[in-house]
Specification:
The complex is a heterodimer of chains A (121) and B (167). With 121 residues, chain A is an alpha/beta fold. Chain A has one domain: STAS domain (Transcription Regulator spoIIAA), CATH 3.30.750. In chain A, 40% of the residues lie in helices and 23% in strands. In chain A, strand 2, helix 1 and strand 3 form a beta-alpha-beta unit. The radius of gyration of chain A is 13 Å and the shape is globular. Chain B has five helices and five strands. Chain B has a single domain, classed as Heat Shock Protein 90, CATH 3.30.565. Chain B starts with 6 loop residues before the first strand and ends in an 8-residue tail after the last helix. Chain B has 167 residues and is an alpha+beta fold. Helix content of chain B is 34%, strand content 22%. In chain B, helix 2 packs antiparallel against helix 4. A five-stranded antiparallel beta sheet of chain B has the order 1-2-3-5-4, with helices on one face. The chains are: A alpha/beta (121), B alpha+beta (167).
């Protein structure tokens, strides 16, 4: 019933590593998201972009998974950025306070520009 | 389209995570017929997802043999959503329950367990949300949400007569 999440990883030069998420971000996505994050972390990623597909379904269990990633990223002094979220889910992420720990940008390009300039969203 | 009297849609979904998406799609269809705006429809979809997820996970132990019942009642003033579950993991306290802002700092610092955000999100997105006392014929939990209709500009124009007063 759940749209199984597809997770892929790409590197944008020395600027950032992108984790592309396609599908539902719910409790079923936990293993895939954590595996991708652990993989890029062990590869030495410092700036990590979680790129969502705009119309995918995200629930509070999915947000809890992302908070778990934030926790790990803080320990490793990584910078987390999130892109591609719909206006609705940007609002939800702000509502629960996730944006205190991860900047939001409309697109990967916007995030990369900001990271190059050392800015925050 | 504006309802005359009330319209009721009732769904029974298996108590299995993922099936809440059927309730999301159903409520979106009903909300569009009530002329809710797209952002409000997204709010309602998220609220019903969280409420159904709670009913599946906590109200019926994610046992797919059980059912979660979703009743959508639309009338001129509001969309009323009732979520019923068997309450196998215990009965939720009647009323608003926990309303605090999630302690995300505590979660990030690993002082608080992850989760517990669903009810807060629901309350931020709908006009009313509470556990209610089931009727005598029903057992288990019943969680009710209400979203009031705000007439759109188009409806306002059509309902204002020559005198400028609303009919």
């Amino acid at each position: 019933m759940s749209d199984e999440i597809q997770v892929s990883v790409r590197t944008l030069g020395d600027v950032a590593t992108v984790i592309d998420l396609m599908g539902d971000v719910t409790t079923f996505a936990e293993e895939a998201i954590n595996q991708a994050y652990q993989g890029v972390s062990s590869g030495g990623a410092v700036n990590i972009i979680f790129n969502f597909r705009e119309n995918d379904y995200i629930n509070s269990a999915g947000i809890a998974i992302l908070i778990g990633v934030v926790t790990e990223a803080r320990k490793r002094e990584q910078k987390l950025v999130m892109t591609g979220l719909s206006a609705h889910f940007q609002k939800i992420f702000r509502m629960v306070g996730l944006t205190q720990y991860a900047d939001l940008y409309p697109s990967v390009d916007d995030a990369v520009s900001a990271l190059r300039n050392g800015g925050s969203g | 389209m504006r309802p005359q009297g009330s319209r009721v849609v009732e769904l029974k979904i298996p108590s299995e995570l993922g099936y809440e998406k059927i309730a999301r799609e159903a409520v979106a269809t009903v909300a569009r017929r009530l002329n809710f705006g797209e952002e409000k429809i997204e709010d309602i979809k998220t609220a019903i997802s969280e409420a159904c997820t709670n009913a599946i996970r906590y109200g019926s132990g994610a046992d797919a043999r059980m059912k979660v019942v979703v009743v959508l009642t639309a009338d001129d003033e509001k969309l009323d959503i009732l979520i019923k579950d068997p309450g196998v993991s215990g009965i939720a306290p009647i009323g608003g329950g926990e309303t605090g802002i999630p302690d995300i700092k505590g979660m990030v610092e690993e002082k608080k367990r992850l989760g517990g955000m669903g009810l807060y999100i629901i309350r931020m997105l709908v006009d009313e949300a509470e556990f209610i006392q089931p009727n005598d014929d029903d057992e288990g939990n019943q969680f009710r949400m209400v979203i009031y209709r705000i007439p759109s500009d188009e409806e306002n124009k059509s309902e204002v007569g020559d005198s400028g007063r609303r009919k």
